[in-house]
Protein 1
Amino acid sequence: MKPFNRTVFNSLHIKLIAGIFLIIAPMVSFLIYNNFYSMDVVRNQVAQSNSNMLNLYMGIIDNKLNDIDQYLLKFAAEESGLILLESSSKSDVDGYNLERIWLFSKLRDNTIYYKGLDYLFVYSPVNDDLLFAPKVAGSADSGNEPIQKAIIGILRDTQASKNASVSYDRWAVLPMQQQDYLLHIQKVGGLYIGAGVNASEVMGPLDLLDLGDDGRALLVDGDHAAVQDKAFINGHGIDLAFQSDDYRLTGNKQQYLVIGKNSSIGDFGLAAVVPDDTILERLPYLQRVILLMATGSILILLASIYFLRRVVLLPIRRIVTAMRKIKEGYLEARIPDRPTSNEFELMNKTFNSMVGELQQLKIDVYEEQLNSQRAELKQLQLQINPHFFLNSLNVVYYMAQEKKYDLIQELSLSLIRYFRFMFRSQTDYALLQDELSLTEHYLKIQGFRFPGSLSYTVTAEDGLQDCVIPPLIIQSFAENTIKHAVNTDEPTHIEIAIGKETETGKLHIRIRDTGCGFSEDVLSKLSEGMNLTNEGGEHIGIWNVRRRLRLLYRSEAEITFSNDQGAVIDMILPMYKETG
């Protein structure tokens, strides 16, 4: 698990944006909540208002249908002639027909007293005879034939089911091709009496409801399926499964509000379908203002963040980016010159000026260090001259004691040439061929001092003569060998070999002798890089060479000390050649 990074949350960028959100977000949230709450309140009010109207209309319809039911019960109780219809018509055809005509006239005459009633009927199962009395005189013709056939089919199915519960024992919807009806059938003795109400007549008053241009008031059956406007309901995916005390939003895009009321005496109901757009159009002007305020607040928030980022955060980010580069050591970094506020322009110019001065100061300090190192290098080179000069005078002294004047002359000439070279070569580097010539001349001079006890060989691979090395580094170790390894008791051989390393391509200088080598104590201190010089000037040549190599090559040069039948010094130097 990654540790929690506080640096990100401690950023000024995050804090400013978070602060703006904390200020504006609660207000925007409240406005949005208030807007949705207002819409919900309006929907509830519209639903309650339409629910009350549906309750009122359903009560009126139920009362009308109940009056018809009461009439049917009264008719069945008072008309004794119904007994004749229960018996077979074959026993008394004339009496049956006369009673049938009487009942038809009475039923037809009473239909005018009930608004919406379309027809009354009596069905005799024994005679399979339907007495059908329409409201309008003369309408008992082919126009009502589909209705009569439908009623006879329902009653025959009821008889075939051995007096099972009648599907129309309560008021229910009878769908017909031309016109839908509310049908109720009551069984009285061996007869069935019933009534049919025109659905359009029942729904007529509901057309006065203000449901909007796309709203509907519908009659639904017991399963809450639409009786009218089926294409509209199915086309918009409206579900009419309502609850009497509540509303629901339905439709393909949840865009219709459905309220309904079930009948108390029948398997049908009334439903109102109101477009949600029509409802929200009734919102007060203030609610629309709230919605605009919420939208405007969000836009203001986005604009504020953009403005803050452009005016404050981006200039700060440019400063921070430049400071990070400076911290990483990239002193060439500068803050870009971009149009910004006066304060940031002043900060940018001041910062760039300070960094420029810092860069120049660092360059000056670096140059001062280089000058100091050059001065120290010159001083180290000059330390060699008096040291060698004293040793040379010592050789002349011993030769004068032995009165070897010819050798003194030759030695003096060699010294003149040697010091002439030394005094004119106060540089950081010298050609390898000059250094080797100087060393050979020095060893020749020392041969005068130790005749028969000193021999030497100097070899160099081809192509290395024009390489440059620090002056006197080979001569210094040759001088150390003369001082510590050469004596008159045993002959000493000095070997100087110059080569090139195949792997690194660096210059390899090896100086070895056949003397007694380094003592264990001295070798241990040399391997640890310790300074072996003392007040008597012992090992000053080694310290001098190591110091000069460190100043000139830093970590690119390497010097090691070891014993192999005498002292061995290996120097690995970068291979530089003279140019120009």
Note: The longest strand covers residues 266-275.
Protein 2
Amino acid sequence: MKRPASPGALPAAARATARSLAEHTTSALTAVALVTLVSIVGFLLTHAASSPALASAMPAIYAGLFASSLVLVRQWKKDWNARRAGQAGAAHMAFRDPVTQLLNADGFADALAHYAPPSDHAEESLAILCVSLGRLKDIYDRLGESCGDEVLRDLSARLVSAFGDDAPVGRIGEDMLAVFHPASSGIKLALVGGQINRLMDLPVATPGGDVIVPSTIGVNFVEMPVATPRDAIRQARLANSAARTSGSGLAFFEASLDHAQRLQLDLEIELRQALQAGELQMVYQPQINETGATIGVEALMRWPHPTRGQIPPAVFVPMAEAAGLGEALGRYAIDRSFADSTLWPGLKIAINVSPVQLRSPTFIATVKTLLARHGVKANGFEFEITEGVLLDADATVLGNLEQLRRMGFQIALDDFGTGYSSLSYLGRFPVDKIKIDRAFVTPLGLRSDASSIIRAISDLSEAIGVKVLAEGVETRSQLDILRAEGCNQAQGYLIGRPMQPDQITDLIKAPASDARNERAA
């Protein structure tokens, strides 16, 4: 997707530079001509007294020089005004987005800082609305830059027409528009926001057919005059982010959002430090077969924060990926899992691998390096992927998966049945095991159709030659039903909670009968 400064802006800037240079050259030549005229007049005055012939011709010479001076002065003034106008135009364009001709981020902040409300408005506060345009990047990628620009201009024109000339409208990000105007109440703004969403959601005609660009709005109320416009805009963007996260379409800024963002930034810094210091821990949840023997473990990462306590993976993993730490986090998990696996020869270690890792062209090289470092074999491990990885699989992802299998790793499809068209993937992608999501395990014994779903998945896995394991097994009844329906591998709190490496060592050393008795109890 095109950045706010479009490629077409570069030739325009070059033309402006050339024009400015030409204007300065013309002005300089005019000034030189004036100086030359003054010098000629001085020369003639000096020599007129000693030359009677020259003295008699002086009135005509003076008239010609005077006329020439008038022409040169007028030209110099014209050049000066043109240069001033050019400078004003350049300053004006510096505050404009080249695609939409709306105010850009700097221009919008400047307008906010200098805003004076119309005399008929009694309100003392402003409402800043940030409108994010969903799927705009996809439109640029699918239909091309020219078509994407036209869609963006159409949506921008809608927002301008909705508020009129009195409300400054800007493009403050690649896919974000903004507007501000005097505000009376949150209820009124909620109504306005809903109207804007409906307006922006109307189809846009393109050569490739009508497209719909859903919008999300964040609103921030600020007192006039606005002392810190950029901070006020940042808070409106935070509200926009909250609206996208909640799926509500519109949200208002609250101080808690600012606190949450600052906390997230602090956690990002602390996570980087924890990675560098090796403070993240790996725990392992056991997996069993039909006899109750431990056949493998799933590697899970934990962050025991020294002051904030245990921070769950659901918090720090997405945060790490958003902060660009996804690959580093994944490498850390593989490195520690390879190292710990030497404690349990013959036990299969399942390691979660993220889409960020699989999209990396250096992922295979990283895995090979870590295998060599720890002296372990690929056939002792399986990499767990989610269905979302296959949904967005490109050539790099598919190539990495194929290379992993050739190296001897197994591939497991995690959370099976919770995504899109799961069955279709099994025949198209290299999968060795499917893991039945806990959502299908929990209803066992409570709903009559739950057992039938497990039976269907088990029959399918047997037909295509892949293993099947059930996650989230918490009761003996669930485990018995799973085995009766053909699912012989299981994982969950009934089998064992995530354990430290030394606890896994003790578990596999214990007699199998002791482990079975403990689970039955």
Note: The two ends are 59 Å apart (CA to CA).
